Amino acid sequence: MLVRLWAVAVMAAVCSCGAAEVAIEISADPPLPVANLFVNPGLEEGDARPEGWGVAASQPDVVDFEYPKTGGHQGAYLRVDAHGSTSNGYLSQPLSVLPDTLYRAGAWVRIRGGTMVMWLHAWVDGTRFDERAYLKSYGSLPLIPDFVKIEWTTSPDPEEWIWVGREFRTWPDQGNVNPHFGAYFSRGSMDLDDPFIGLARTTLSVRATGPGLAQVKVANEAGNEVFVSDKLAEGTAAFEHELPELPTDARYCVSVATTDGEVAERWYPEANE
Ligand SMILES: [Ca+2]
After folding, report:
1. Do 192 and 210 fall within a single domain?
2. Inside any domain, residue 5
């Protein structure tokens, strides 16, 4: 039996900015920023290869791997050069997951040509779990750059790091997944860094106290409101609300208006940690 035990971080403060004596407490289960389940996710630890990761190709003579220690999305990264289209070339790390749970997985990719895949693989009761996301570049076409400029194609900028990821739900009996990131059977070259896998949803708990609470709102960083309370009854001094199923790749701002027209605000998490 799986027991979910999350440390719940609680942040509380009395905002002296404007609204008199309004306290806003915010907690989340799981807490944000949500944990990355990968070992050595930044690929920083390791000598010839990043520790904790598999680095392999189905045809080793077709795909070269390099492990530079600087110049990545942050610091060290993995470079994958596929000289032909007959092999994959993957960075991979199997891990345990909870069944029937929504996760988010991805990696930062800088692609000069070919096809990059994030391949999430598992066997569940003899059935293959298989979820993917792709990023393609025409940068390895022989016509580029002499006859066709890469910017005329739909290819990503070869100098830019791009996030390749998606959400996926594990199956009811699933206890593990083996994410792979890398070259998918096409000639090309790409860099990989900062893979992530973690829970995709959290439950936010909001509590506001103070004299004369009028309304409570919760918005994400983009300014989209995820919750707006009704106008609170006169004399309300405490308000509590739970918001389930919120995306974990965001910060949330709780704002509390009081009957005297002041607004107190608090962010969760407080800053980019
Ligand atoms: Ca790195």
Report:
1. no
2. no
Q: Say what the pTM is.
A: 0.86
Give the total number of structural domains in the chain: 2
Whether 190 and 110 have beta carbons less than 8 Å apart is answered as yes
Q: What percent of the chain has pLDDT over 90?
A: 85
Q: Are strands 201-209 and 102-124 parallel, antiparallel or unpaired?
A: unpaired
CA atoms of 257 and 22, how far apart (whole Å): 9
**CATH number of the domain that residue 124 is part of:** 2.60.120.260
pLDDT band at 153 (very low <50, low <70, confident <90, very high): confident
* pLDDT score of 12 more than 70: no
Which strand (E) or helix (H) includes residue 116? strand 102-124
Q: How far is the CA of 68 from the centre of ligand 1 (A)?
A: 9
Ligand 1 midpoint to CA 19 (Å): 43
Distance 159 CA to ligand 1 centre (A): 16
Range of the domain at 237: 10-32+201-268
Is the predicted pLDDT of residue 174 greater than 70, yes or no? Answer: yes
